[in-house]
Specification:
Layout lengths: L11 H27 L3 H12 L12 H52 L10 H7 L16
Helix pairs in contact: 1-2, 1-3
Length: about 150
């Protein structure tokens, strides 16, 4: 018997919590460190932290001491990694939801096609016109009402 590998699954909520918690902690740490090292006020320290973490870098505030410059270099590197991690989690969620929605639409269409092709009660093949007419779908994946005039 093969030994089974342990299965470790992290929920989406846990991933989001971890990403948000890490980003908030980076913002708090950066704000406190810049307040202490540069002597800036809370607003300027938080502003510089956010500008650094998002890699915008307006240049209106710059670190002036050697220690704060070295901290900024490592802080920006870690911050970009965390922001990309958080963005990848949100993108994974969005595209996963979109894929599930598309799968449901495809299943609905294929179920309809199968039900038309296997018209047991009438024991006759479906005409092309009947098939195409029944497959009309609006842009939201909902069945359009059939035009009864034809």
């Amino acid at each position: 018997m093969k030994p089974q590998k342990p299965h470790f699954h992290v929920s989406f909520r846990a991933k989001v919590f971890l990403a948000v918690f890490t980003v908030v902690m980076l913002i708090i740490v950066g704000t406190v460190v810049y307040k202490v090292l540069e002597g800036w006020g809370f607003v300027d320290s938080a502003y510089f932290t956010m500008i650094t973490l998002t890699t915008i870098g307006y240049g209106d505030l710059v670190p002036t001491t050697g220690v704060s410059k070295m901290f900024t270099a490592f802080f920006a590197f870690a911050g970009v990694a965390v922001f990309l991690f958080a963005l990848s989690i949100l993108a994974d969620y969005y595209f996963g939801q979109r894929a599930q929605s598309l799968e449901k639409q495809v299943k609905r269409v294929s179920d309809k096609a199968i039900s038309l092709l296997v018209k047991e009660e009438e024991k006759r093949p479906v005409t092309r016109r009947e098939f195409v007419k029944s497959m009309r779908i609006d842009r939201h994946g909902k069945w359009q009402k059939h035009d009864k005039r034809r």
